[in-house]
Amino acid sequence: MSLDRNNSQGGLELEYEDDPIGPLEIARENLEKFADSFIIQDSLRKMVDWMLVLREVVKDSDISEQERLEAEEELRMLEAAWVAIADSLYEQGISC
Questions:
Q1: pLDDT, tens digit (0-9, with 9 covering 90-100), for 16-64
Q2: Does residue 96 lie in a domain region?
Q3: What is the mean pLDDT of residues 74-80?
Q4: Contact between 21 and 29 (Cβ < 8 Å)
């Protein structure tokens, strides 16, 4: 926070900066980043697990053609989502 003495009414005006103030604010931001990272990792792991299940479903000879087509379509959508997420992370400097 900084004080601005040059406002038009002659009084003091408080300006809030985006930078964290104090060690608790820094710790809170670090905790939020860690939680975000944990959630992303957990979600990606669950996506991979579901993709592996769908690949096995597609190979199963006991399912109907309709079920196979639905599993293949869902697998394509998950693969497209995976690529989009990987591209987004890569743009942020994170390699997957």
A1: 556 668 899 999 999 999 998 899 889 999 999 999 999 999 999 999 9
A2: no
A3: 96
A4: no
Domain count, the chain: 1
The pTM assigned to this predicted structure is 0.65
Q: Please, are residues 70 and 54 in contact by the beta-carbon 8 Å criterion?
A: no
Domain of 84, in residue numbers: 2-91
* Separation of alpha carbons 46 and 48, rounded Å: 5
Question: CA torsion, points 49, 55, 56, 58, in degrees to nearest 10?
Answer: 140
61: enclosing H helix or E strand: none
| Alpha-carbon dihedral angle through residues 39, 44, 48, 53, given to the nearest 10 degrees | 50
d(CA 96, CA 49): 16
Q: Which residue has the tokens 């479903």?
A: 57
Asked if the model's pLDDT at residue 10 lies above 70, the reply is no
Helices (H), 20-94: 22-59, 65-91
